Amino acid sequence: CAHSVKQWQGEQALREARELRGMGDYSASEKKTLGVLEDFPQTLGDEALFQMGLLYTLPKNPKADYEKSRAFFEKLLTLHSDSKRKEEAAAWSFAITRIVRSEREAVELQKKLTQLEQTADARGKKLKQLQDELDGREREMTEHRDAVRQLQNRVTELESQLAKFKNIDLTIEQKKRATAP
Questions:
Q1: pLDDT tens by residue, 29-61
Q2: I want to staple 17 with a disulfide (CB 3.0 to 4.6 A). Which of 33, 67, 79, 106 is the partner?
Q3: What contacts 118, CB < 8 A, 6 or more positions away?
Q4: CA Rg value for the chain
Q5: Which pLDDT band holds residue 1 (cuts at 50, 70, 90)?
Q6: Is 142 in a helix, a strand, or coil?
Q7: What Å distances lie between residue 87 and 40, 77, 118, 163, CA to CA?
């Protein structure tokens, strides 16, 4: 009879722990559940382990920790293979394993994204530098083209003057020949 009263007290403590968890008092719920786990490892251990596993999955719990949660579910599966919570614990363990793996992959992808963004930024800066350099070279080419045009115009002017001087020289030569005996 004393055993059943004590068992009832343990079950009551687990109910209170669930209520505390539902009210958001995660620390008190954890303390009460761990007490049950310590006092009733064989008879209520599976339920206490299950509740601890759930407690660490709650996003509002400041101590939320998927690894700890998974450890409690795995411990339930190991120590209480005949538990009525066995299938649920296995499902939670599987889901948490997938979540943890996905989170790790997300972190790795975020790192890769950051590296790619840094590479893109560096290449963007290099592209800007090359574009500025190209713009400078294009300005130089434009200046050289303008200088070449000016020189060509000057050559054309000089050729025109040279032709005039040749005509004058020919005219003078013809007049000398015409007046020469």
A1: 999 999 999 999 999 999 999 999 999 999 999
A2: 33
A3: none
A4: 46
A5: low
A6: helix
A7: 21, 9, 46, 109
Length reported for the chain: 181
Q: What is the share, in percent, of the chain residues with pLDDT greater than 90?
A: 88
The two structure tokens encoding residue 143: 């200046």
DSSP labels, 67-133: HHHHHHHHHHHHH-TT-TTHHHHHHHHHHHHHHHHHHHHHHHHHHHHHHHHHHHHHHHHHHHHHHHH
Q: Which helix (H) or strand (E) holds 4?
A: helix 2-23
Q: What is the pTM of this model?
A: 0.66
b/e 129-143 (16+ beta carbons within 10 angstroms → b):
eeeeeeeeeeeeeee
Contact 76, 37 (CB under 8 A): no
In angstroms, the first-to-last Cα distance of the chain is 165
Distance in angstroms (rounded) separating the CA atoms of residues 72 and 68:
6
